[in-house]
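Q: What residues go here?
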């Protein structure tokens, strides 16, 4: 609908922004489920407001990028989640201990006062500061039309400019502080997901205490249940500690059998798709109930799932591709159930349906994307 009158809509927006008379409309608040059963609140701007935010983001991003540290990866040009995970993989080979940090409701609690203090440091243009203030103070509206206003904290998680503002806030609240206070330590940050690498348990405990104090000064706090110290246990590391696993960006880091270039096996510390990520994917299979799609042929199922499978393989298959086998076993099991329900010739025989699908995978390996990667029926 916006595109139908694109030139008119953009002209009106330009006119209002250039004259200082543009005021953001209320942000639609929606909720999505989190892993712990709670709800995450997202703020969805209008199309027009997304365009307006993109204007300022594109204008300010280059000067902010000149300040940001290389250890920050989230929502930045030419940086990715895979790069962040790869850096953590390198760091755990050097450092024995990790602080896995989780900031409680960061986007909801980000202080407007402190954010605008950081903005003042880098933005001289009054019009830019005016629009940033209007966006962070824009009213929130639920699906019933009820409105409320932010009380000096928070920015919509879902807005175009929010990630840039969040990166600026954490640049001063955490990154620069850690660099100055603990110059010998490493960290990796992706948005509000932060991993800090330490040399010993005692150092990790002291650093964590200092981080809590620092975040408190910035009106933030850690989620005590999700924040933990982890020992990166592998061969030749003899310390004893209960927690030896942590998740980061959908991958699980833990002790894993590894081989060197000569084929010799040893206990390493590396990542693969996490169990939480596996469960999210298998939940998609369950909710789709595609084993009941008896009115469709197998090519329809392939057309529905192949785009998703491409995404899973491209992301989670980056490290230890073979660990995706579990989710594809579950997918194959449901595919067998579909075949049994659809074709009378199998007569409730899972074995016959499985054999037919195995033969199909050999004859038409391009039907499902994962068959081309060797994920065949066991």
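A:
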């Amino acid at each position: 609908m916006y595109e139908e009158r694109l030139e008119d809509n953009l002209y009106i927006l330009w006119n209002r922004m250039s004259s200082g008379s543009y005021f953001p409309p209320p942000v639609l608040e929606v909720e999505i489920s989190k892993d712990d059963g709670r709800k995450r609140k997202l703020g969805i701007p209008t199309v027009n407001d997304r365009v307006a935010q993109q204007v300022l983001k594109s204008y300010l991003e280059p000067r902010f990028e000149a300040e940001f540290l290389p250890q920050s990866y989230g929502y930045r040009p030419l940086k990715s989640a895979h790069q962040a995970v790869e850096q953590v993989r390198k760091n755990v080979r050097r450092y024995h201990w990790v602080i896995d940090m989780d900031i409680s409701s960061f986007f909801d609690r980000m202080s407007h006062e402190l954010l605008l203090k950081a903005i003042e440091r880098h933005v001289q243009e009054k019009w830019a500061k005016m629009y940033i203030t209007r966006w962070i103070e824009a009213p929130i509206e639920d699906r019933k039309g009820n409105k409320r206003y932010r009380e000096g904290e928070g920015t919509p998680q879902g807005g175009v400019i929010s990630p840039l503002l969040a990166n600026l806030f954490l640049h001063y609240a955490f990154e620069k502080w850690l660099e100055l206070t603990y110059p010998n330590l490493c960290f990796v940050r992706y948005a509000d997901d932060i991993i800090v690498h330490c040399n010993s348990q005692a150092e990790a405990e002291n650093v964590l205490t200092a981080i809590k104090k620092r975040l408190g000064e910035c009106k933030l706090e850690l989620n005590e249940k999700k924040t933990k110290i982890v020992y990166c246990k592998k061969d030749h590391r003899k310390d004893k500690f209960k927690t030896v696993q942590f998740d980061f960006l959908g991958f699980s880091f833990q002790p894993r059998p590894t081989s060197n270039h000569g084929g010799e096996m040893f206990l390493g510390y590396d990542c693969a798709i996490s169990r939480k990520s596996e469960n999210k994917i298998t939940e998609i299979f369950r909710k789709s109930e595609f084993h009941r799609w008896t009115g469709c042929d197998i090519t329809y199922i392939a057309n529905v799932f192949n785009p998703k499978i491409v995404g899973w393989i491209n992301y989670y298959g980056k490290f230890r591709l073979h660990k995706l086998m579990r989710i594809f076993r579950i997918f194959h099991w449901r595919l067998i159930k579909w075949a049994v329900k659809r074709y009378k010739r199998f007569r409730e025989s899972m074995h016959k349906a499985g054999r037919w699908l195995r033969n199909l995978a050999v004859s038409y390996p391009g039907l499902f994307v994962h068959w081309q990667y060797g994920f065949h029926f066991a």
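A: Context that may help when evaluating the design: The first strand starts at residue 27 and ends at 33. The mean pLDDT is 93.
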